[in-house]
Design the sequence.
């Protein structure tokens, strides 16, 4: 697909964008950027990918390339903010989008209200897991499921530590859901 | 938590997989990629230029420079390199100052996305150029020297 896009195939590019956007977005979200910064990082990542298209030697690593580029841009944003607001509370970065999406509103209208409630609770519980778990799970849940190579590039953690961390984080989340569910 | 070690393919592993899938569906519903961003990425295909030489970012003061004590608004210094040609850029609140090395005249466009085109800048015979508009958001420079077209890697101002 990367090769077809290099050759000028717009349909191949579209397939790449649709297949990889959720991964890039998950990296942005994992780093808790503000919406404005996150949007710019997302765009910068794709603009740069378009520039590098003909130079990517291993097309099957395009996902890892995108994830790694997005991560580095996220880290630059955080560094720039730290430089501007040295004494400020770092929690200003901690701005999850509270706006309800149309999809979310739609869920409310559906009969499966308890299922929607569980989904929403799942989402809230993520924040209580600790930063490492929250980051890992946010990237892990991109669609289609990212490879461990892509996750490694997205978060700068060794491929070998992803499996055990994934297991620990998922079980911690499950435990939190069970505890709250029983109340 | 129970003491299960989660053998691959074991029941614990299976439940982990279900939870992961549930999270995936939650993300798709509660935090999808904004549609306008997907559109921007689609349009980025136009930035795929075969005839231009890519100048890679080799120095970024945000990452590579030690912070200077007491200086919180130091300008952002960037260096891009394409073979023997380098482009030094200093981004400040007031705009942008740059130099092309080896010194040579050039026409320079400040790109802000697939569609944006601003009035081009001109580098003098010593390769120096200035702009009074500070770049914001993603930007890149496209430089036309006598011999070739060079485009700097995209980055965020």
Sequence:
């Amino acid at each position: 697909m990367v090769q077809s896009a290099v050759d000028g195939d717009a349909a191949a590019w579209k397939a790449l964008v649709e297949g990889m956007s959720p991964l890039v977005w998950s990296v942005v979200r994992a780093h808790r950027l503000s919406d404005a910064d996150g949007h710019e990082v997302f765009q910068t990542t794709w603009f740069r990918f378009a520039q590098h298209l003909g130079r990517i030697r291993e097309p099957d690593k395009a996902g890892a390339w995108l994830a790694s580029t997005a991560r580095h841009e996220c880290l630059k944003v955080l560094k720039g903010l730290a430089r501007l607001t040295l004494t400020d509370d770092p929690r200003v970065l901690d701005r999850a989008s509270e706006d309800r999406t149309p999809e979310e509103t739609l869920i409310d209208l559906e009969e499966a209200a308890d299922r929607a409630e569980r989904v929403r609770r799942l989402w809230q519980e993520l924040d209580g897991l600790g930063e490492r778990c929250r980051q890992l799970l946010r990237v892990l849940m991109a669609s289609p499921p990212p490879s461990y190579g892509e996750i490694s590039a997205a978060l700068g953690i060794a491929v070998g530590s992803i499996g055990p961390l994934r297991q620990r984080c998922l079980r911690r989340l499950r435990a939190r859901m069970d505890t709250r569910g029983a109340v | 938590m129970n003491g299960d070690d989660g053998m691959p393919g074991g029941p614990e592993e299976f439940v982990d997989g279900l939870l992961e899938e549930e999270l995936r569906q939650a993300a798709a519903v509660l935090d999808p990629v904004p549609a306008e961003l997907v559109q921007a990425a689609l349009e980025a295909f136009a930035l795929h230029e075969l005839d231009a030489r890519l100048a890679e970012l080799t120095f970024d003061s945000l990452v590579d420079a030690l912070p200077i004590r007491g200086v919180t608004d130091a300008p952002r210094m960037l260096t891009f390199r394409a073979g023997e040609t380098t482009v030094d850029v200093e981004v400040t609140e007031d705009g942008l100052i740059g130099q092309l090395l080896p010194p040579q005249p050039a026409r320079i466009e400040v790109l802000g996305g697939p569609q944006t085109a601003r009035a081009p800048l001109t580098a003098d015979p010593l390769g120096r150029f200035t702009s009074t508009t500070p770049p914001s958001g993603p930007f890149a420079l496209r430089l036309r020297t006598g011999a070739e077209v060079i485009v700097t890697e995209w980055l965020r101002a």
Summary: Residues 2-182 of chain A form one domain. Chain A is about 70% helix and 0% strand. Chain A has one domain: 2-182. The two ends of chain A are 50 Å apart (CA to CA).
